């Protein structure tokens, strides 16, 4: 199993009461709540944490893209991934992912990812996402064109990485007379492509297609939901006539490890609950603008609204497998159990979440790296 | 007044059409929430006009054609619709998004259009005036913002939702986003061509409109100096529903 330290880089100094009062920290939480001096310390602390992951033996470190929110301070994961490319030597660097439909031009994504791949000597894992619903509000991009922009951008990027240039590209959303990438990516034929998702049949059908076989990551979902979608991925591969490798499956989940179960819950509780009940929260209209999902999926979410949009305690989250928390022994046992059920080849652990401060984040990373990671890697 | 209820096919789109009354043709172009039923103002107008109430492509019971990608597609569709039914000298009455469609039609071709009546129309931006963000508001809040008289909103909210009405609401919302998400509820290039509208234009606005504020009338007067502006007091975004008598009187005048 490959173990990846995943970071969201939240604005951990957030005035939680302001976030709660506003109903969400996305789109319209006034940016006067961001203090650049605190931001300066947080960015550098978070980059230190990601760099520390290399020393602790993680296989990869991961950054992602979110816009105009206290949930994550990485509008451009390119910036953080670039910094990591120079400050690390061995770990892979995963961008999970670049939000293709939000970007004005996919060639820019192709170029930037290629630069990081070349600078890091082929350590880049490229991830592509559509961006979350809220970002269609903040960016003005029409969500009813989200899927087709994503697919067209993806096609342009992969062709730019692999086909000899210059060549013309004619699409509906993007038109380029001369596609001729300098630099070409370091890895052949191109960096691995991973597709993070909250769970969608359309995404699985597309990612698992024999032409692509992209690694599918289920993010922040209850364990039984993760299991359902990873199984759907495997079944879809069988339907295409091939067997999925474990390396095509991944799970991204927040984790907290301490000396004892009791200590872990006590230390993680306020920070996890801030993450789940303040940083993640947004109204339905913000989460799922028209066209972002099919109307059938939207109706299903509306039915499950109370469950999805209500508060969750740490105990409920652990019960649901939304959060893995406890002593090293407990966490190891939990992951071994989940692995037996799901056989995911990639585990992305979020060791900093919500307001979790620097010292607890370090402690968590070190406990995980010492007591859990070595036993998971051989799986 | 009896309205016929059926479908016609235009540009490959099976289009739901209700029609009633006789006289000069009057094409009613509905707004973002559709035209699910024949309303009293339509019956009142049918005493004077041959009233046509289609549901736009992508709304209500009409098809969702793949070609419908922006407001210009809707405008070309309705120009074809006028031709298909051989309507001459039609009065176009467009509410909100429908008013925007009427403008987009009229800058292209007025040969079958006698006049425009725009009711709280979308379509342009105005400096310093912010429309409500209908895509970020919960549906109940949108309904409450449509009317000045809260009782009308409560009546609308009390109507029982069925699985069919929920499906239609989601479909309407999807099409509205497709046509009007970005740029939000307007076409930045439309003002360049408004001078091409060579037929009489009346603009009706509710003084208490909370979706598209009445301040938009100032920008419309600047862009279309010959347009007649009628502001109705104590009225929200849908004067045709909230003040049907005053509304019909202005249309018929």
Strand arrangement across the biggest beta sheet of chain A? 1-2-3-4-7-8-9-11
CATH level 3 topology of chain B: Rossmann fold
- Distance between termini of chain B? 21 Å
Largest interface: A-B, 19 and 17 residues
CATH architecture of chain B: 3-Layer(aba) Sandwich
Name the beta content range of chain A.
15-25%
Number of helices of chain B: 9
Shape of chain B: globular
Tell me about the largest β-sheet of chain A: 8 strands, parallel, barrel
Oligomer: heterodimer
Q: Detail the poorly predicted runs of chain B.
A: none
Shape of chain A: globular
The whole-angstrom Rg of chain A is: 20 Å
Query: What share of residues of chain B is helical?
Result: 25-40%
CATH homology superfamily name of chain B:
Alpha/Beta hydrolase fold, catalytic domain
- β-strand percent of chain B reads 15-25%
Mean pLDDT across all amino acids of chain B? 97
Order of helices and strands of chain A: EHHEHEHEHHEEEHEHEHHHHHEHEH
CA radius of gyration of chain B: 17 Å
Helix content of chain A: 40-55%
Describe the 3D structure.
The complex is a heterodimer of chains A (379) and B (253). Chain A has 379 residues and is α/β, with parallel strands linked by helices. Chain A has helices spanning 16-22, 36-56, 77-87, 106-119, 133-139, 146-162, 201-207, 223-240, 261-279, 284-287, 295-303, 305-309, 314-320, 328-342, 358-376, and strands at residues 2-6, 60-63, 92-99, 124-129, 167-170, 175-179, 193-197, 215-219, 249-258, 324-327, 346-350. In chain A, the strands form two sheets. An eight-stranded parallel beta barrel of chain A has the order 1-2-3-4-7-8-9-11, surrounded by seven helices. In chain A, strand 5 (167-170) and strand 6 form a beta hairpin. The mean pLDDT of chain A is 96. Helix content of chain B is 35%, strand content 21%. Chain B has helices at 40-46, 71-84, 97-108, 139-146, 150-158, 163-180, 216-223, 239-242, 244-252; strands at residues 3-10, 13-20, 24-29, 49-54, 90-95, 113-119, 201-206, 228-232. Chain B has an eight-stranded mixed β-sheet, sandwiched between helices. Chain B is globular, with a radius of gyration of 17 Å. Chain B starts with a strand and ends with a helix. Chains A and B meet through helix 10 and helix 11 of A and helix 6 of B.
């Amino acid at each position: 199993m490959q173990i990846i330290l995943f970071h969201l880089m939240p604005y951990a100094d957030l005035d939680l009461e302001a976030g709660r009062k506003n109903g969400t920290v996305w789109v319209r939480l006034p940016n006067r709540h961001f203090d650049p001096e605190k931001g300066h310390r947080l960015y550098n602390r978070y980059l230190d944490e990601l760099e520390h992951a290399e020393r602790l033996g993680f296989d990869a470190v991961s950054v992602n893209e979110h816009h105009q929110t206290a949930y994550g301070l990485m509008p451009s994961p390119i910036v953080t991934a670039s910094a990591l490319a120079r400050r690390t030597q061995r770990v892979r660097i995963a961008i999970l992912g670049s939000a293709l439909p939000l970007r004005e031009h996919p060639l820019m994504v192709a170029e930037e990812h290629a630069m990081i791949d070349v600078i890091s000597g082929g350590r880049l894992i490229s991830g592509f996402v559509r961006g979350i619903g809220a970002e269609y509000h903040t960016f003005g991009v029409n969500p009813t064109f989200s899927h087709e922009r994503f697919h067209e951008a993806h096609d342009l990027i992969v062709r730019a990485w692999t086909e000899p240039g210059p060549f013309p590209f004619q699409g509906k959303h993007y038109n380029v007379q001369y596609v001729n990438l300098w630099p070409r990516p370091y890895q052949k034929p191109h960096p691995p492509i991973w597709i993070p998702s909250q769970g969608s049949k359309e995404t699985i059908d597309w990612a698992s297609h024999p032409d692509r076989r992209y690694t599918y990551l289920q993010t922040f979902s209850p364990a039984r939901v993760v299991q359902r979608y990873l199984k759907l991925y495997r079944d879809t591969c069988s339907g295409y006539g091939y067997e999925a490798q474990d390396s095509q499956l991944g799970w991204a989940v927040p984790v907290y490890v301490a000396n004892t179960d009791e200590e872990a819950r006590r230390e993680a509780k306020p920070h996890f609950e801030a993450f789940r009940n303040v940083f993640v929260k947004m109204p339905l209209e913000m989460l799922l603008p028209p066209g972002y999902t099919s109307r059938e999926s939207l109706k299903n979410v509306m039915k499950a609204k109370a469950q999805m949009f209500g508060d969750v305690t740490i105990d409920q989250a652990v019960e649901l497998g939304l959060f893995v928390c406890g002593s090293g022994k407990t966490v190891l046992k939990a992951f071994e159990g989940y692995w037996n059920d799901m056989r995911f080849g990639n585990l992305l652990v979020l060791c900093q979440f919500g307001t979790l401060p620097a010292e607890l984040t370090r402690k968590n990373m070190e406990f995980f790296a010492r007591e859990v990671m070595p036993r998971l890697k051989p799986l | 007044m009896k309205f016929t209820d059926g479908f016609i096919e235009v540009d490959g789109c099976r289009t739901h059409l209700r029609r009633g009354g006789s006289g000069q043709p009057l094409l009613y172009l509905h707004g973002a929430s559709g035209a699910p039923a024949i309303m009293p103002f339509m019956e009142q107008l049918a005493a004077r006009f041959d009233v046509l109430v289609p549901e736009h492509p992508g709304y209500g019971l009409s098809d969702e054609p793949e070609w419908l990608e922006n407001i210009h597609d809707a405008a070309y569709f309705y120009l074809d619709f006028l031709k298909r039914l051989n309507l001459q000298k039609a009065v176009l009455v467009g509410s909100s998004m429908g008013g925007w469609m009427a403008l987009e039609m009229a800058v292209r071709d007025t040969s079958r259009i006698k006049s425009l009546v725009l009711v709280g129309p979308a379509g342009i931006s105005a400096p310093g005036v912010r429309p409500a963000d209908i895509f970020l508001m919960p549906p109940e809040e949108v309904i409450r913002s449509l009317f000045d008289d809260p009782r009308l909103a409560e009546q609308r909210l009390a109507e029982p939702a069925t699985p069919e009405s929920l499906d239609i609401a989601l479909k309407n919302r999807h099409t509205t986003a497709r046509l009007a998400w970005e740029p939000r509820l307007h076409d930045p290039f439309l003002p360049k061509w408004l001078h091409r509208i060579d037929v009489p234009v009346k603009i009706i606005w509710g003084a208490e409109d909370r979706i598209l504020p009445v301040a938009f009338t100032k920008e419309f007067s600047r862009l279309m100096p010959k347009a007649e502006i009628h502001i109705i007091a104590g009225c929200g975004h849908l004067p045709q529903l909230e003040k049907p008598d005053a509304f019909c009187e202005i249309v018929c005048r």
